[in-house]
Predict the structure.
Amino acid sequence: MPELPEVETIARDLRAALIGQSVVDVFIVNETIVEPERDYDVAQLIGKRIKHIDRRGKNLLLYFEYGLAIICHLKMTGRLIVDNTEKNHDKHLHFWIQFEKNRLLFYDTRKFGRICFISEKRIGRHARLARLGPEPFDITNTRFAQVVKARHKAIKLTLMDQEVIAGIGNIYADESLFAAGIRPTRKSSTVSRQQLLRLHWHVRQTLQKALDNRGSSVNDYLDGNGRKGNFQNLIEVYGRTGAACRRCGTTIKRIILGGRSTHYCPHCQR
DNA sequence: GACAACCTGACC
DNA sequence: GGTCAGGTTGTC
């Protein structure tokens, strides 16, 4: 479910609520969401303070004292919510940490999400993190144009390729390409350097706007406080199949690309 | 590249 | 009953 703006919003919410608190207890309700390779026993978290919380691509990183860390990927329906009122017997609650003042709960309807108990010094070598490309807000526009142009597949698939750029998923790939006026099916390598420089600007613009609106709650997404985002109300093409393009009135088209629904305006995007 | 797999729920 | 869903990974 969550892409960069959603994961970043959650990271900020968790940061505000949890930093500095000690772990009182940890509960794994469902082992299937825990990656089998662990650097330490979860009981070791008890008594340790949470030092900082980061995001890398769509991964959330929790750092505790004594070099203990947790990597969390929410995949499609995962949620990380700070809540003290929630009962523990929800069907989709798989993991939670009791802190001094708050409780952090991990829910996931489809159980695609994963939690990894890893030592801080090995985080960079975790298989999923090690392969991630640069963050869209860190990469320079010239470098962006370079790495995108080097790929020989549909530009939407390049944008969603986490090894090229980290954090862009189905919603923001569609929205960024609409903003830049580029058809999702165009081969990356055939898009001009000028167009790619513009695209990078629109990618950052789109992600920033989504961030300012606390992410998109199209289906399941809730922020770290259990509230919906607002960006779903500002979406131009994603999920608007058959509706009129707000820019030109043409009917928004839906095709399948890389197995994912892809939405675009046949008139505005060439 | 396309496709199935991992899962559950919503909707037609 | 079938289709679809903010993701990733492995197999043709």
